[in-house]
Amino acid sequence: MTNDWLDGVEDRLIKVEEEQSGIENAESWDPEPGDILKGTVIGGKIIPTKYGPAPIINILKDGEEGSQVFTVWCSRSILRGRLAELAPKPGKGISVKYVGLKQPKKDGNAFHMYVMDVEESDHEYWRDVQQAYHIRETDSGAPSSANLMDDSDELTDPF
């Protein structure tokens, strides 16, 4: 009797090792206003920092000079909310745009504005992020967050 799972295990381990080495060598995304990062979600997790837990997304970006892995730190509230709401599925496409500092429509402090669009969601994968930041679900099972974007901030056809 053979174990089908063991067939091809070396190839799978090589693939996992390659993905992990890319993550270890990931560059933190440090955008300027208007920058867009578009690629494939490798995965993500919550990282402890001296300021408290911060979720990250690792994104594989293919370019003319080859592939590169970027880490997006979702420590800013707008980006963290979009992450929890959209729950980007590993292996699927994602686009993240840093709009820049924006003034609220009413009085208040300027904030860092991001927009995000995903090809497909996986709310179960990001459940720990939703729970860590007390993001409640709507009746449909999808997380709820305040809509803080103007129509002009939407990404158009990122895929």
How would you sum up this structure, described in words?
This protein has a domain of 106 residues: OB fold (Dihydrolipoamide Acetyltransferase, E2P), CATH 2.40.50. The C terminus is likely disordered. By secondary structure, it is of the alpha+beta class. It has a six-stranded mixed β-sheet. It is globular. Helix content is 20%, strand content 34%. The chain is built from three helices and six strands.
Can you tag this structure with a few keywords?
6-stranded mixed sheet, OB fold (Dihydrolipoamide Acetyltransferase, E2P), alpha+beta, 159 residues
Question: Main β-sheet, in a few words?
Answer: 6 strands, mixed
Distance between the termini: 45 Å
Number of helical segments? 3
Whole-number average pLDDT? Answer: 76
CATH architecture of the domain at 29-134: Beta Barrel
- Helix proportion: 10-25%
Order of strands across the main sheet: 1-4-3-2-5-6
Q: How many E strands?
A: 6
**Broad structural category:** alpha+beta
Low-confidence stretches: 137-159
What's the CATH topology name of the domain at 29-134?
Answer: OB fold (Dihydrolipoamide Acetyltransferase, E2P)
Strand content: 25-35%
Short structural summary:
This protein has 159 residues and is of the alpha+beta class.
Describe the secondary structure blueprint for this structure.
Layout: H1 9-24, E1 27-28, E2 36-49, E3 52-63, E4 66-73, H2 77-86, E5 93-102, E6 111-118, H3 127-132
Parallel strand pairs: 1-4
Antiparallel strand pairs: 2-3, 2-5, 3-4, 5-6
